[in-house]
Design brief:
By secondary structure, chain A is of the alpha/beta class. Chain A contains 23 helices and 19 strands. By secondary structure, chain B is an alpha+beta fold. In chain B, 28% of the residues lie in helices and 20% in strands. Classes of the chains: A alpha/beta, B alpha+beta.
């Protein structure tokens, strides 16, 4: 009997656009078909397939057909046509603009071409709550290999040789971290997974935790064996309720299959993992704050040294790695350090997952080999900036990173190249902005976020961010003064040098990098009281260019305050007294007749 | 070894040698940079540091440069442990500029503090007029009061909220049930931000009133009845004169030493 499997993406993006109802409808539909047909389709709830922009996504194997924007009313047709008659529903296929045609399989999308999936190898390919699916794709083979055929020192050596660096943003060599912890005195050691992903627009860790929870557990178990730890903690951001649910199920399944708990895989190695839900603070992604939070104390950082490898959770040596780092471990053990280190650039090996968001055609989750250029990620995989708009900058590293302009598009994406240009890899947020984004306002946005999310323990971070934010608000509202740019730079340098933890040390990056690459925009705000992007309301006047306006009336329909009037096919007029500068008309106008005065 | 230590000997641990501002100094393993510097009369400004309540590292004024393999790292002298051959620079153009900017921000928080004014003068800083000072505020959030209350008192106060909204307060801004009026928070505050008033045998602090008690020797008011009871409970019968003020306690201890009585006590020799 022919088996067919339907993979319904139930990652964050697709869930939000209603994929769970589609999953249920597919199941119901298949059930009503009964056993009369020869096909026994299995409907599986999977993690993120990557192209979140086009969700809900439904993939059918073995035909290798991928449908996008699937709606409830399409379910019957999919079952009838594709499951029963092996026909492709053309209208549900993805239109690949770069290839200029509809593409049947997600594996042939241009979006997928330059990607290489290691950490995300199972996301979208397996049921998110089924350990058998994971095992069927070589899951827990690496753990078996580690426990039965390797010594702890060999495992650490393998990880060191692979050149794997922490994917949480810091980029510290993972093998070194493990060795330091293994060598630190003490009988009790801990393994922690940092799943407190908090960067605005980032969802890499979330997708792995939700879509492939066992890979994280396997990575942690291998580490526990390599450093002789018996307990592990999964610190997951409280907002990620699906991740918590899937992780708890995965832990229970792994225990019942002998992959966690007592005498793992028949050896004398014991390791148990428990989930700790975060308290909703961005700063708890910083490792000492995270430790304090698990201990039940206020999530505030403490000075390093001592490092967690010496003095971690409850004072014991502790390894803390990010979700994505853990997801790489089983593959490295299974395929070997040489295979892994052949991928990537000189100082950065392997791949990196990015959540590609903002003004980009293909919003989604991508995994690319290190060393790929920003241009390839944004314009080939990401499909470029939509709606005839022009690329302006790409922000990497979230609130700790910086913006890079068009001139830096050929920069290699790796830890050291990004750092050298004033941004950073960070945990993998990649926000693309177009020419309708004000870089001063963008910096202000990040500082507002940080002013709420700084723990407030040390003065440079707390007071420095507050002062820089006050100046940026002034600049955005037309109260910028001579000398403000220099003051921002000096305050920024002080905050970088004097802050206690990584949050403060990197907090000025969005401001400093924006000043570095877009100084003229800051100057226009301060000296000319003008916002070139037309975003800062106090500094913007929108006008309709009568030469360009065709009188199509599109702007009239989108204006929320009825500020635009005019006869059909005659140039329209914008009432400045009513205009709230929401830019709706400007975004809508097909001939770009609405200009910033 | 150059750079003699000021008490003649170091506390235990392996003896190391570190360089501060180009001179070599002896240090013990486990010591912090600040301890070595202070022992050798090298000025490093601090606001949140107290020898009795170390380890906060939050005021960040004591940040110094660590030179290693051609690279400069900024570390807090109060919390960074010494290591053999470490090269420390406590003064530089960059450090002064950063301290000046930081002190300017402190002054916006606590415009009336003379301590901040004096420190700013040391680094030739003018008040930062570009931003508005918080004239209603005195606190610089160094956290010394909270640590003092945790370790000497009853954890009656703490920091509340986070980020730029952070402040020191009692639980739910109510008169704290746990407070015993010991005044440890008041005494340790570097900028006199905590209001405590002793008047007519009454102490007012944190919206609470306490009855003061007199020293059994000199008759001066010196602590609250609650603080005395708390210490009695905490210390038990350790032979500490809880009914004496600090001044008289010091005098009595000195007298005991003078009379050699302490030797009898130390060796547990029956007196008389």
């Amino acid at each position: 009997m022919l088996k067919k499997t339907v993979y319904v993406c139930c990652g964050t993006g697709c869930l939000a656009s209603g994929s769970h109802a589609i999953y249920q409808a597919l199941q119901a539909q298949v059930k009503t078909l009964g056993l009369a047909v020869e096909v026994v389709p299995q409907i599986k709830k999977t993690g993120c397939h990557g192209l979140c922009q086009k969700g809900p996504l439904v993939h059918i194997a073995p035909q290798d057909v991928t449908y996008i924007h699937v709606k409830l009313e399409d379910v019957e047709e999919i079952v009838e046509q594709t499951l029963l008659q092996d026909q492709v529903v053309e209208r549900l296929l993805y239109v690949d603009r770069q290839q200029g045609k509809r593409v049947v399989s997600k594996h042939d999308w241009t979006f997928a071409q330059k990607q290489l999936k290691i950490a995300l190898r199972n996301c979208g390919e397996i049921s998110q709550d089924c350990i058998e699916d994971y095992i069927a794709r070589d899951g827990y083979a690496a753990l078996r290999q580690a426990v039965t055929a390797m010594t702890p020192a060999q495992i650490r050596e393998e990880i060191t040789c692979s050149g794997l660096r922490g994917r949480g943003g810091g980029g510290f060599a993972t093998g070194n971290k493990w060795s330091l912890t293994a060598q630190a005195p003490g009988d009790i050691k801990y393994v922690i997974c940092n799943g407190d992903e908090g960067d605005p627009g980032a969802f890499m860790d979330r997708s792995i935790l939700e879509g492939d929870p066992h890979t994280v557990l396997e990575g942690m178990a291998i580490c526990a064996f390599a450093i002789r730890a018996k307990r592990g903690f999964l610190y997951i951001r409280d907002e990620y309720s699906l991740a918590v649910e899937n992780m708890k199920k995965a832990i229970a399944d792994a225990e019942s299959h002998g992959m966690l708990g007592q005498q793992i895989l028949g050896s004398d190695f014991d390791f148990s993992v428990e989930v700790v839900r975060g308290g909703g603070a961005f700063v708890c992604g910083e490792e000492t704050s995270l430790l304090h939070s698990i201990e039940g104390q206020t999530g505030e950082p403490s000075p390093k040294p001592p490092f967690p490898s010496d003095h971690g959770l409850w004072g014991q040596p502790t390894v803390i790695n990010n979700v994505e780092t853990w997801a790489n471990i089983p593959v490295i053990i299974q395929r070997g350090a040489a295979w892994f280190s052949a991928i990537g650039s000189d100082g950065s090996k392997g791949t990196k997952v990015f959540s590609l968001v903002g003004k980009i055609a293909n919003t989604g989750l991508v995994e690319v080999p290190m060393g790929i250029t920003l241009r390839e990620v944004i314009f080939e995989i990401g499909g470029g900036v939509p709606r005839r708009r022009k690329f302006k900058a790409v922000q990497t590293g979230g609130p700790s990173g910086g913006c890079l302009p068009e001139a830096k598009l050929d920069l290699q994406v790796d830890f050291d190249s990004l750092l050298a240009e004033g941004s950073m890899m960070g945990s993998g947020g990649m926000i693309v902005v177009d020419d309708r984004t004000c870089m001063v306002e963008f910096a202000r946005y990040y500082l507002t976020f940080l002013s709420e999310e700084s723990c407030g323990k040390c003065a440079p971070c707390r007071e420095g961010i507050k002062a820089m934010l006050a100046i940026l608000v002034d600049i955005c509202q037309g109260r910028g003064r001579e000398g403000d740019i220099q003051l921002l730079e000096e305050l920024g340098k002080m905050v970088q040098a004097n802050s206690l933890c990584g949050l403060g040390k990197t907090a000025p990056n969005p401001v400093l990098s924006n000043i570095h690459y877009f100084r003229e925009e800051f100057e226009a705000h301060i000296h000319e009281k003008r916002c070139p992007a037309g975003v800062c309301k106090e500094l913007t006047v929108l006008q309709i260019d009568p030469q360009l306006c065709t009188g199509c009336g599109a702007c009239v329909k989108v204006c929320p305050v009825d500020a635009i009037a005019g006869e059909q096919r005659q140039p329209h007029v914008l009432d400045q007294g009513k205009c709230i500068k929401c830019n709706n008309c400007r975004d809508r106008c097909p001939v770009d007749a609405i200009v910033v005065g | 070894m150059p750079g003699r230590c000021y008490r003649g000997r170091l506390k235990g641990g392996k003896v190391l040698e570190i360089s501060i501002n180009g001179k070599l100094y002896a240090a013990a393993a486990g010591e912090k940079i600040l301890e070595v510097a202070r022992r050798n009369k090298i000025l490093i400004p601090t606001l949140c540091h107290s020898e009795a309540l170390p380890g906060s590292a939050s005021c960040r004024l004591c940040v110094v440069e660590l030179h290693k393999e051609g690279e400069v790292q900024f570390v807090a002298a109060c919390s960074h442990p010494v290591s053999e051959g470490m090269v420390v620079q406590t003064e530089s153009q960059a450090l002064s500029a950063n301290r000046r900017r930081l002190l300017q921000l402190y002054q916006l928080m606590a415009p009336d503090s003379s301590r901040i004014k004096n420190l700013l003068a040391v680094y030739q800083g003018e008040p930062l007029t570009r931003l508005t000072a918080d004239t209603d505020n005195k606190c610089i959030l160094c956290g010394l009061c909270v640590r003092a209350c945790d370790q000497l008192g009853t954890s009656a106060i703490s920091t509340v909220f986070r980020g730029t909204h952070k402040k020191i307060d009692t639980a739910f801004a109510q008169p704290p049930v746990a407070c015993i009026g010991c005044g440890a928070c008041y005494n340790v505050c570097p900028v006199d931000a905590i209001a405590m008033e002793d008047q007519l045998g009454q102490r007012r602090i944190w919206q609470k009133s306490f009855e003061l008690v007199r020293c059994a020797s000199c008759g001066e008011y010196y602590t609250t009845r609650e603080a005395q009871a708390f210490l009695q409970h905490k210390l038990g019968d350790q032979g500490v004169d809880l009914e004496l003020c600090d001044c008289c306690k010091a005098r009595r201890t000195a007298e005991k030493y003078r009379d050699g009585l302490h030797l009898l006590e130390i060796y547990n020799i029956p007196q008389g």
